[in-house]
Amino acid sequence: MKAVVYHGPGQKSWEDVPNPTLQDPTDVIAKVDTTTICGTDLHILKGDVPAVEKGRILGHEAVGTITEVGSAVTTLSVGDRIIIPAITNCGKCSYCKKNQPSHCQTVGGVGWIFGHLIDGTQAEYVRIPYAETSVHKVPEGLSDEQVLFLTDALPTGFEIGILNGSTKPGDTVAVVGAGPVGLGSIMTANLCGAGRVIAVDMDENRLAKARELGATHTVNASDSDAVEQIKALSHDGLGVDVAIEAVGIPATFTTCTQIVRPYGSIANVGVHGKPVELPLNDLWISNVRLTMGLVDCSSVPNLLNMVASGRLDAAAMATHRFTMDQFMEAYDLFENAAKNQAVKVVVSAS
Ligand code: NAD
Ligand code: ZN
Q: Is the distance from CB of 226 to CB of 219 less than 8 angstroms?
């Protein structure tokens, strides 16, 4: 088969590799029908994720069709269409039993293994460990594109942004960074009844997309008075109830500390590559709550119900479409997302 193989920082190719085979009785093999590229893949290609070894097949988001099932698999069959989330859930360890598979101890202490610790989904076929407890069948009548972004961007924006931020009905939520993950928060903020949703980004295309997907207000982060503008948009001018950091740099974390109101929450979603200053000396007296985390993908069944009932248009994140033989072109476009007005690319079997 063919797959996107990582060959060290800055190097990848769409090349021939051996087909995956069943290794454990709880595995299934799936043909990848549709996959996508994540900002995290770009981090890997910059060499920021040293756990990814040369020769690793990239990708951790896909929709596929089962072609082989292990001997212990009873609830999945050949031909089933499945959503393959970024996080693997063994169903047995203390974390997975608490529905916290981001720290699955069985698969190595971190539930993100595809395209990280084992071969991933940017391939014609993929081996899926602990398939019964990790994948979800695609409900009848839904297209791949309607469910593809339930594998990472949407549950991350919802779980680590909206839910960790304890968003309550009527709250003003500011999302700093309107990339796929920030847009995931914007698209799901109404599930907790957010009153206002303010998208903050310096890219006007992303701000336009944010308005299309549910932001009630936008603020350009390059404006020198951006913090004042955001605070002015809160109900009483004292700051937002929930400040979501969805970029992963010190400056945007600082913005969150400046826009949050007393008794508000900062939900950090971004992956930071270096230490970030935490002004506890200012924040302690404001009763501010700070959360952070790796997505569990535990909300996928709920989000899937919302998509199936037509209440969540998850496909709206897709801006560009490719076939797998164009994978390198898809990467080129996504690596220059701002220039190409790209949010998410959909890469389908050729
Ligand atoms: P992205 O790079 O596509 O989007 C980031 C957005 O932030 C862009 O629209 C960019 O224009 C904007 N931005 C950059 N600098 C800014 C600034 N100073 N002020 C305001 N906006 C600014 O990233 P993404 O794929 O949406 O992911 C966002 C973050 O979430 C990344 O750090 C990613 O690694 C992280 N992430 C976390 C988890 C998790 O489980 N916690 C999961 C997936 C991704
Ligand atoms: Zn586990």
A: yes
176 lines ligand 1 (CB under 6 A): yes
Q: How many CA atoms lie within 13 Å of 78's alpha carbon, on the beta-carbon side?
A: 5
Size of the chain in residues: 350
Whether ligand 1 lies within 6 angstroms of the CB of 198 is answered as no
Phi-psi region of 97 (alpha: psi -120 to 50; beta: other; left: phi over 0): alpha
The predicted model gives 28-35 an average pLDDT of: 98
Q: 83: part of which helix (H) or strand (E)?
A: strand 81-84
Distance between Cα 208 and ligand 1 center (Å): 16
Residue nearest to atom 1 of ligand 1 (CA): 179
Phi, psi dihedral angles at 3 (to 5 degrees): -155, 160
**SS3 state at 245:** strand
- Are 95 and 124 part of one and the same domain? yes
Beta bridge partners of 348: 34, 323
Task: State the Cα angle at 251 between 248 and 253, rounded to 5°.
Answer: 60
pLDDT (mean) for 17-33: 98
Ligand 1 lined by 185 (C-beta under 6 Å): no
Separation between Cα atoms, residue 45 and residue 97, nearest integer Å:
33
Write out the residue range of the structural domain in which residue 314 sits. Answer: 2-152+297-348
Report the nearest-CA residue for atom 12 of ligand 1.
177
Provide the pLDDT confidence category of residue 149 given band limits of 50, 70 and 90: very high
CATH of the domain at 284: 3.40.50.720
pTM, full prediction: 0.97
Query: Is the domain of 213 the same as that of 264?
Result: yes
Read off the tokens for 213. Answer: 């997907």
Neighbours of 49 (CB within 10 A): 16
- Distance, in Å, from the CA atom of 180 to the CA atom of 39, rounded to the nearest integer, reads 9
